[in-house]
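Practice problem: predict the structure.
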Amino acid sequence: MHSGHNGRRRGFMRPVTATSNGSIFRTLPLFCFLTGLLFFFIFYIYQAQNAELYDMRNQIELERGRHIKVKSENIECSRKLTKQDNALSFYMMNLKQLQDDKNEGSINAALLPVEWFVTHQDA
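Answer:
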């Protein structure tokens, strides 16, 4: 465990040359571990954002489909409303025509006895 050289403990991984102190070999596993941890953290964030982005895209597609459906329903309702407005104006014209005919008929019915009386009186 201890080397005979100056009574110091040596690192777990010994340097390539006997003259270097081996500090790179003591920090290399820590550096690799921290680099791997950073890599997996970045990968985790990427995966989480990718999943959230996928959910947002699905939500956008659902909202787009709902928007198209509501828009087509509004166009259909507008078309039906225009058709009903045209039918209503047609029926209002017919109602006015019938009321005018009714008023004309009641006036003619009121004048009919007077005309009959006038024609029979002259005779």
